[in-house]
Design goal:
Endonuclease, Chain A, alpha+beta, 10 helices, membrane, transmembrane helix, transmembrane, 2 domains, elongated, eight-stranded mixed beta sheet
């Protein structure tokens, strides 16, 4: 039954060719045995008509095959076209895969630091072998107490240049000093690691102290290049960027964000910090060399230094205030201890 069914299916697809074959065989048989028939002319007419019929069936079969072949050729051409476009599609697919890989890589190098110890360790690793440090924040209290002296010590030991760029609050801008003190007190009414609470006056002194410390270290380490910009707007974050990493700290000292060098976030923050510093009021640190500072700067030296920098201290500052400012500059306490 299976063979009969297959034969029937084949016959249905090739009936015209099968009929042409039978007619051709029939015409051939008649031609072979034409001598047997009495009417020769009738036999020749049958042979001629049969031949024409066979040729017609063959022509029909050829036309049918060509008609069937056209969709196949179109499909083949479309397949070749798709195949030709395949490299472009593969390139686009590879681009998508690469973008996804970079995104995953960025996510893998940006993570949250939890706890004061983990944050302190990240800062220490950043200071380890860096040749640069970019800071943006409030008054630079932690920078002045830890980052600046330790980076200078490491650079001096290894006899390498050190580039530092800072953006801190403008101590001459009463409005921004008051805003910063008010913000810090809203976070905590308790004294920080220095034993002091935040007031507009403390904010002003801390910024002055950072400028004084920058000038003092600049005079003592010839390979130190330092730039300081004074901002008229406050920020609630502190950026510390070394040649290896970026650490962003908020008012909660127990949590921070870390990004490694080479990540999209790290590179973007470099652009942001440099652009922000360019818009800040520049402190001409190079002019400070004309006012030599003692190991323990005197009251007169400090006053003359700030006048030379174009940042004269408030007239209300007494010798005690300037002494307090000098202590903050050179013997600053870590506010997070």
């Amino acid at each position: 039954m299976g063979r009969i069914a297959r034969f029937g299916a084949w016959l249905g697809k090739n009936v015209d060719g099968f009929i042409a074959l039978l007619l051709a065989v029939g015409v051939g048989v008649v031609g072979l045995f034409q001598d047997v028939f009495k009417d020769k002319d009738a036999v020749q007419q049958v042979i001629a008509s049969g031949t024409l019929l066979v040729l017609a069936l063959l022509a029909t079969t050829i036309l049918r095959d060509r008609w069937r072949q056209e969709p196949v050729e179109a499909a083949i051409r479309e397949s070749f076209t798709s195949t030709a476009a395949l490299p472009g599609r593969l390139e686009r697919l590879e681009g998508v895969v690469d973008e996804a890989g970079r995104a995953l890589q960025d996510l893998s190098v940006v993570h949250v630091l939890n706890g004061a110890e983990e944050i302190a360790k990240a800062h220490a690793e950043g200071r380890g072998e860096t040749d640069r440090w970019i800071f943006k924040g409030g008054t630079g209290t932690y920078f002045r107490a830890v980052t600046l002296p330790e980076c200078v010590t490491a650079a001096r030991k290894e006899r390498r240049a050190l580039l530092m760029r800072l953006e801190i609050l403008d101590p001459g801008n009463e409005r921004v000093c008051e805003a910063y003190a008010r913000f810090r007190r809203s976070m905590s009414q308790e004294p920080d690691g220095t034993g002091e609470v935040w007031t507009p006056e403390r904010t002003r002194k801390e910024s002055y102290a950072t400028i004084l410390a920058g000038c003092w270290y600049h005079q003592r380490f010839g390979l130190l290049e330092i730039h300081i910009g004074l901002s008229a707007t406050m920020t609630t974050f502190r950026w510390d960027l070394s040649s290896a990493s970026l650490i962003i700290t908020g008012e909660d000292p127990r949590r921070a964000l870390l990004a490694r060098r080479g990540s999209f976030y790290y590179d973007s923050c470099i652009t942001e910090l440099m652009t922000s510093l360019e818009q800040a009021k520049r402190v001409p640190i190079e002019l400070g060399r004309s006012v030599p500072l003692s190991e323990e700067p005197t009251i007169e030296e400090v006053r003359r230094l700030f006048e030379t920098l174009g940042l004269p201290l408030p007239r209300s500052y007494t010798d005690r205030d300037i002494g307090d400012l000098t202590r903050k500059a050179l013997r600053a306490k870590n506010p997070y201890l």
